[in-house]
Amino acid sequence: MTTFGFFYLVLLACVFMCLYRIGRGPTVPDRIVAIDILGVVIVGFCALLSMDTGQDVYMIVGISWALIGFIGSLALAKHLEGKSFDE
Amino acid sequence: MRRAVIFVLSLITWLLLALPIDIVAWEIHWANLIAGIFASLIVALLFDEVFIKEHARAVNPLRYLWFLIYVPVFAYYCILANIDVVYRAIHPDMPIKPGIVKIKTDLTTNSALTALANSITLTPGTLTVDVDFENEENILYVHWINVKTTDVDEASEIIAGRFEGLIRRIFE
Amino acid sequence: MSEIIGLTLVSIGLLFDFFGCFGLIRFPDVFNRLQAATKCVTLGTCFILVGTFVYLGPGAIGIKALIALAFIVVTTPTAAHAISRASHAAGVELDESTVVDKYAEEKD
User: Fold this and answer.
1) B132: chain C residues, CB-CB within 8 Å
2) B56 in a structural domain
3) Does one domain contain both B167 and B89?
4) Is residue B71 domain-resident?
5) Are C60 and A56 in contact (CB under 8 A)?
6) H/E element holding C92?
7) Per-residue pLDDT averaged across C5-17, rounded?
8) Per the domain annotation, does B17 fall within a domain?
9) C chain contacts of residue A60, beta-carbon cutoff 8 Å
10) pLDDT in tens, C49-80
11) Half-sphere exposure at residue B155, Cβ-oriented, CA atoms within 13 angstroms
12) Tally of domains in chain B
């Protein structure tokens, strides 16, 4: 197995652990935490992909994912707290 | 003035992201650069309201020097924190003693409080839950994975003491 | 040489990522999970991005990796803060090993 193949497997294990927490719960905030962390893991995945292939498209996807995932987590947290977004 | 600061910051971000100036071949992609200038202008005109209020501080070079000193200090504590948390996660008995404690700080500006809260979140066993203002002092509620003391002053010294001085020099 | 250093940094980052996600599964309540996940996964991904920068040199991808690092370091603690406050406001119960909750005492 190549070095990068091993790296992908480790990150895939991280992704499945996050998915376990999303599916299992038990409360709504647990799922939100897991979704937030899944986003950060995927940014790492994008960095590995662009290291492996040498294309910068993956890194652009990673940057966008970091920003949009952050806004999504904030929106979910605000919704849970029962407030509108501009408070 | 504030618009100028926003314009420069967004133009720097554009230059780093889109790289209109090829350093190796030393040629400038004019279409890319002009698009960046227009985009930064639009951002500066539209998002004047939502940017930091203390814009004059963003042009003081001394603050950037202190920031450069702050980064390695922060990175050192961050790595220590991670080794600590990993130890707690893989230890079979899971030696945790969690609790939410209250600490106080004499930082006042919004950007300084944000920086302190984020630094606390990324360093040993602590996570900021809420920021409050009472009795002329800013209060932070901190979730601590291994509570050593519930006294306000002692907890403030342990949790926030190591960053307050540097953050005051950078953001106040 | 830079390739070896880059791959070493990526390996350290993957180790932190793995144990961060492991903590996400193992710890008992939301706040402890946030502690483990936020710190370890943020630092792990930062190591991976610095490793990318070292491995590829300061080209188009390397600079983008550093920008992604800056975004992650600023945004993840903020999101963790928002989620922890929201879950406390939504009435999530803390684990029974919790020794003190000043926040609930003050808010009453």
Assistant:
1) 106
2) no
3) yes
4) no
5) yes
6) none
7) 89
8) yes
9) 64
10) 999 888 888 777 888 888 888 888 888 888 88
11) 24
12) 2
Q: What integer pLDDT is reported at residue B58 of this predicted model?
A: 63
Query: 3-state DSSP: chain C helix, strand, coil percent, rounded to 5?
Result: 80, 0, 20
User: Could you tell me if C78 and B118 are in contact, meaning their C-beta atoms sit under 8 angstroms apart?
Assistant: yes
User: Minimal Cα–Cα distance from A72 to chain C, Å?
Assistant: 9
Q: How far apart are CA B105 and CA B92, in angstroms?
A: 36
Q: Does A42 touch chain C (CB under 8 A)?
A: no
**DSSP symbols for B7-70:** HHHHHHHHHHHH--EETTTTEE-HHHHHHHHHHHHHHHHHSSTTS-S-GGGGG-HHHHHHHHHH
- Residue B24 domain boundaries: 2-51
At residue B117, the 3 state secondary structure works out as: helix
Whether residues C106 and B79 touch (CB distance < 8 A) is answered with no
A9 touches chain C (CB under 8 A): no
Provide ipTM, 2 decimals. Answer: 0.85
Distance CA B24, CA B30 (A): 16
Asked if C98 reaches chain B (Cβ–Cβ under 8 Å), the answer is yes
> Quick one: CA dihedral B155, B150, B117, C72, positive or negative?
positive
